[in-house]
Amino acid sequence: MVNENLVKDVVKEPYKYGFVTDIETEKIEKGLNEDIIRLISQKKEEPKFLLDFRLKAFKKWQKMKEPDWSGLGYKKIDYQDIIYYSAPKQKEKISSLDEVDPKLLETFDKLGIPLTEQKKLTNVAVDAVFDSVSIATTFREELAEHGVIFCSISEAVKNHADLIEKYLGTVVPASDNYFAALNSAVFSDGSFVYIPKGVSCPMDLSSYFRINSGDSGQFERTLIIAEESSSVSYLEGCTAPMFDTNTLHAAVVELVALDDASIKYSTVQNWYAGDEEGIGGIFNFVTKRGKCLGKRSKISWSQVETGSAITWKYPSCLLLGEESVGEFYSVALTNNLQQADTGTKMIHIGPKTKSTIVSKGISAGNSKNSYRGLVKMGTKAKGSRNYSQCDSMLIGDQASANTFPYIKSQQPNSEIEHEASTCRISEDQLFYLQSRGIEFEEAVSMMVSGFCRDVFNQLPMEFAAEADKLLALKLEGSVG
Amino acid sequence: MEIIEKIKTNKSDDNLTEIQKICLHKLQSNPLPNPKSELWRLSNKSKLSNSLDYSVNEKYSKFDIPYPKNSQSTIRLIIGENCQINLIEKNYSIEQLSEDELQKYIKEQISFFKQNENWSHLLNLSLSCKNNILGLKINGSKIPPIEIFSQASSNSLTAKTLVIFLEKNCDAELLQVNLGKENSSLSQSTFFCLKENSSVNHGVVSYGENRSNLLNSLNVIQQKNSAYNLGSLHFKFNYARFEISIKQSAGNAKTNIKGMQITKNDEQISTYTKIEFNGPNGFLDQINKSLADDKSHAIFEGSIIVPKIAQRTDASQLSRNLLLSNLAQIDTKPQLEIIADDVKCKHGATISQLNEEELFYMRTRGITLTEASKLQLSSYFQEIIAFIPISKDKWDLLDKLLNEN
Fold it and tell me: What residues have CB less than 8 Å from A453, skipping those under 6 apart?
């Protein structure tokens, strides 16, 4: 019989990104109303179309109700008690990274994010977002040589307003859901990527989101456009300090892939999850959606979700173009009182479209881990295929694992396959590993890692290592 | 509110049984199910309201049974026919439940009912008059197969209720046939209580006619070491719902379910199952098949609930669907809710059409396309039909499905 306590101990690991950077910040007053939205827009010197977009979204948000269908239990959020704009004070315009506040650079260094350009070996361009603003983007010149635009969304609004106006809100309309409407009204910063026709992005692009302030929410918005025959791999990471209050994070990510383009979007989410009693932690309500507009386009989501007190996230693909492909690979690990409700939506609209879903959920402690997905074959999705696999692993008898796949088909000439299973750490396998001299802790870690292998294999090199390390860390700890 | 008024105008308050009063009271605040709730979200609202439009009929009218009684050994009962049964043989006994037993059991079940989740049961029990409730206590073994028929009368809404107690160590085979009449609605509620070590092969065949509707709900409580096998088939209904709720009250029980629904024209047939394991070592093997053709809509939603107490549960659920037309629709949602950690649970779902390669192979062997499709369909149907007790030797369901429907 496996000692339950041993396994529980193994999944305990203190949160190591919980420090706060002591930096002077500029904050606006708490609350949400039209004036606040105008103020945010004014601070960011935005054109009129964007202010109109925000105000329209705000009006819609006011009429909407906070969704409760996911059954996530959390304290009611007071939307008037949140600061909607917070930015580290720095010089007006930064011409090079040397001018960035060293404290900020230090923060990102501590997080293991290389912002200084001498660390070119990593070959990853990073856009670092601190609270509400992007503070630096690396490798811009190199990327510009290839015509790739990689900058913060605020900069893109100024320099590439035409692209923003054309694509913003086309994948996730402001009225899509409660949190998307809120984000559309108050989004502060985020990343913008544009890959021109025929360009394969020479390096991985990455955004790193850091919440530093305890009372402000983070509402970033990411927009990635891949023109014909282009390709890009984008990575996203997130951490936050430990506060005993809950912080709201409501992001929107929109991807557009045109003919033959491919976008790979990977996330390692490690927001602060709250303590063992469930105090504090980030409420992570995110809307991520990709539109495969072009023929043979491909969007692939991979995510490792280990943080946040509450996760509510369904990265989706709208497969419009003929023969377009959508993929979703996910590992969600919940511990203590964390709640994760995550999954995907694959909407097959065009003919011969294909989608693959692989989701692995691990629940430990008193946590709740749900997979919720939708696969829909529209009437025109002739010859389309979907394959879904959702596996759950339970550690301890207090954790819960739920699977809610919705499958809808209106096209006879399409195929949908779904399978799900639930298991625990097998005693036989543990016994075998231990009998071979592998320590209990390492054996559990190996088995969890093996359970997630299908997903880790889909992550880019840099992230696969990080994800493995992250899970190992979460599973490391005092044994016995 | 209309439906409640309808029941009340039909009878004075004094004529209502206590159960009817309790159920009416439960329905009073929300007479219709919430269309936004998960169980009713996909249900066709206008079809539901049309099916409730008929006047309530409590009278029994004679009807033709679709196949003759060709074996003396079968026990045949018709709900509403005012049948009295009291069979006490050497090996077995089939007795009518006393009024008290019936009331007590139904009341106990009602106390767990929720307005949305058990709306069909509540409606049935508020409509069912004494004559239309049949309660049986079955005991012993080597019991001859039992057939129980329910039928709606034309142009009316009829409610029939069946309560069955399977006593300890009892082993029975029971086929329930629900017949729809043209322009009619049948509300059928069945309650099964399986005592320790009992087992039953339960068949449900619901066969409609044009524009007939069916609200069929089944509630099963399984005690320790009981085995419940259900084979069900629903077809030819304009609108039909089959709601199954099975509770293994102390675990250590076995449940096997094989169900199928076939929709054509603009029909809508849905199956909802909820299986709860309230004890350890439970077992479930479930397969649900749907076939949707023309403009029809088939729905399956199945949930498996494994709380902390239900360690070592072994549950599997499979939803297989055939979509045969561009205008038809299939929705399926198998779901698992698990808290116990030492469990084996899995589910699967597929939606596809007839296998083209197999069709091609048969055609190269000189079989026509129609024949080849029929062959494929018959193998698809056969798995379920073979599981329905009694029917297989006397009622050629397969032939009915392939040729008539």
Answer: none
